[in-house]
């Protein structure tokens, strides 16, 4: 397929005309309503207005380098407990560069781990690292989501299809491998507590278990502890899963570029939607559901004939064009509340 060059002066207009934000992807994972975020964001990002008077005991005698090393290695739950000790503790922790970025740009990941009961498993650095990269850990493409069990970045396609992200309710897992639920929970690693949400891209209510465990990690830990045999895992492989449950273990997570100080949530291609409507087929659906960074989309645009047709129709971004209904709505959802989220 031949590619066309892009005039750098047209880049912003091409993004505006030929790409769109798949809002429904972000709405079917763990999410917070905007007013809930606004209530906590200010307090998380600021220390008290008055100067500290009390100190932190023997902790104050540590060299500054060691002090920050300790703070950066606190798990998130302990991090917030420490932050509540006194004003000096709050000043120290609020001043950490990594925390400043996470609390400003990665709040959904931070709040998602706290709501899921997994905050004790990760540090602020564990959230900072995926915040400043845009790559899906599984496929290497743009990943707009954080998988809460691992605090790693993933894309929507891998989240739905890769075996690395398979989750199961503990009761189902225990029944399939013939182990008692109590022993399973003792040996299988972290358990995620689910929270209310939509979890279905067609806006159909999904059945939500109270807890989930990560199949891959739990299986490895049980095998290592010799609590089960390889034969016992056969039922896990053939068990039909509930795909919505994977969405209960992920949250939208934008990426922050340290190079240009810009935040990206990912964009999708209008041209790929046009192609899907013309030709159908799973391969075209997968292409339609792909998200890109800005630079990734501009590279994609050079080989996407349908996107180029949209650009030509717009006369270099100077006139409106007819576009598919799905791209105009930014996804499947049609019934949204006043806060822009599914009713």
From TrEMBL:
This is F-box domain-containing protein.
């Amino acid at each position: 397929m031949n590619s066309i060059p892009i005039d750098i002066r047209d880049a912003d207009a091409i993004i505006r005309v030929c790409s769109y934000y798949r809002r429904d992807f972000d709405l079917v994972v763990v999410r917070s309503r905007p007013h809930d975020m606004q209530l906590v964001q200010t307090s998380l990002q600021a220390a008290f207005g008055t100067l500290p008077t009390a100190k932190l005991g023997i902790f104050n005698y540590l060299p500054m380098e060691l002090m920050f090393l300790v703070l950066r290695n606190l798990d998130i739950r302990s991090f917030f407990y420490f932050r509540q000790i006194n004003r000096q503790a709050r000043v120290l922790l609020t001043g950490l560069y990594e925390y400043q970025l996470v609390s400003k740009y990665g709040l959904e990941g931070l709040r998602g781990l706290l709501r899921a009961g997994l905050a004790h498993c990760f540090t602020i650095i564990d959230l900072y690292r995926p915040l400043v990269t845009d790559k899906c850990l599984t496929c290497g493409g743009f990943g707009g989501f954080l998988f809460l069990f691992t605090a790693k970045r993933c894309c929507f396609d891998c989240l739905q299809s890769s075996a690395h992200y398979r989750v199961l309710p503990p009761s189902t897992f225990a029944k399939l491998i013939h182990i008692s639920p109590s022993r399973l929970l003792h040996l299988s690693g972290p358990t995620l507590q689910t929270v209310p949400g939509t979890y279905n891209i067609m806006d159909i209510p999904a059945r939500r278990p109270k807890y989930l465990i990560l199949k891959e990690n739990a299986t490895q830990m049980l095998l290592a502890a010799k609590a089960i045999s390889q034969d016992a895992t056969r039922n896990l492989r053939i068990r039909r899963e509930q795909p919505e449950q994977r969405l209960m273990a992920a949250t939208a997570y934008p990426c922050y570029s340290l190079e240009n100080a810009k935040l990206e949530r990912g964009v999708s291609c209008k041209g790929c939607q046009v192609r899907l409507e013309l030709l159908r087929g799973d391969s075209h659906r997968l292409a339609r559901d792909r998200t890109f960074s800005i630079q990734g989309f501009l590279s994609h645009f050079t080989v996407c004939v349908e996107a180029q047709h949209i650009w030509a129709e717009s006369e270099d971004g100077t006139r409106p064009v007819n576009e598919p209904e799905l791209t105009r709505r930014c996804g499947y959802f049609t019934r949204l509340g006043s806060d822009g989220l599914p009713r």
